[in-house]
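Standup notes
- DV: blocked on the single-chain target, sequence here:
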Amino acid sequence: MANGRNTSSSSSLVRYGTVVSVLVVLLALWYRSPVQNSLDQRLDTVLTSLLRAESKVDVDSFRRPKVAIGFGGCVDIIVDGVKLLNEIGLKPSKTPFHHDCIESREQLSQSFAYFFPPGAASERFLSNDTLFNELVEASRGLHGNRWALGGNAAVMANRLASEGCDVLLGGRFSSEVTEVLSDHVTVAGKPVEDPDIHLILEYPTGAKWGEYVSRRANRYIVHSDDHNPLLDSLEDFEEQLQSFRPDLLVIGGLQMMDNFPFEKGVREARLEHLNALMLSVDEATGVHFEMASFVDKELMQALLSRVVPYASSLGMNEQELPNLLSLLKGGNVTVLSDPNPRVATVLDQMRELYRLLSTERRGQAGGRRLTRLHVHTLAFQAIIVTTGSPWKNTMSATAKASLTANRHVCGSPDINPSKAKLIMDDSFSISRQEGSQRMPLLETKPVTCWEEADYEVCVAPVLVCTDVYQTAGGGDNVSAAGLVLQI
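- DV (later): unblocked, structure below
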């Protein structure tokens, strides 16, 4: 009888516990729903407002803008980074370390362990052909791998074409790669049989590799290029450039020169030739230089004398901005910076970069005045444009850049608010200086613009994709989309 009573009591407790659990869940849902509904409504409103801001300006479909862009391109093999490293039996290093160039399995493990936890984008030359081929072969057999068009210039070219431009692209591609380029892209460069390959080791937020956990989604890129570092389409591109008569010249892909084993004097000669090409462009034509992940100080110093002063527009991310600023101020290469900087921090860095470059270029023969600066981060887009310069529609361009970030990373032209979130603060200071003005993030007018000194500043929040399809190429797509409405 005692056992029967105990069983009956236990059953009653279980039933009571189940009822309580259900009530708790229902109460949680009841309390959560209004908050969640409010967040969903806010995202919907911000999205609608950004779309409205983007649509205020259309690209001229009767006279398509003409953009010339160099240099290079490749085939991207996109894989789950952690799965690939596990596949080749690479153990997580207990001593994370930054290497300018990867020469061994140990260095690859140390380098990945360095950039993976903060979720900072990185790109490195892998000089060990045996290791690179092992990675390529393992990637080909890895479930879920994807092949895509890669390289700054090629990716930007396809985005510009899809947004309504006619594009001249300097690069050497195989017939398979050329087939995935838009019909509005004309290639200037002799074809190759075997294109350069880049391995894109993607990882989502919260990915685990041993004891390491990534704080944000990003990618780690390794390459062992033959063609791109030499800018070997430069002569063909130059030959077609004058007759093409572009509205905008874009220079990108120069990070392929970083730590590449050039013969003595070759890199300097190629940059001198590139400088001559930039000088040959009509003064009325805008020139944009897209930054990237550089760690070779000598190369960066060469770019600061041969390329940067001859561009009127610069594009970069939150890692590349402090790196460029540090070198301009006589410092060293900044390998790793805050991957989630505050708006005020970025704006102060942009102001300082704008001021330094404007000062540097005074009296420089053939140099162009910097009149546009675009910084793209995970949380927001920021564009500075000199008042009275040819760059137009800054507010709409900032909105378009913001929307393109979500479209690319989520892999869809249609933005789904249920797969997005805002991580930008509800308001932001325009500077870190004490007493600086705070700007509210208004859902019905999310692009905030104001004037100061001799330029206009626009900042827009990004609807950060929570269902990541691809991070690689994000900066190139965003930068290209921002340029489209400003030429």
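- Follow-up: The chain has 13 helices and 22 strands.
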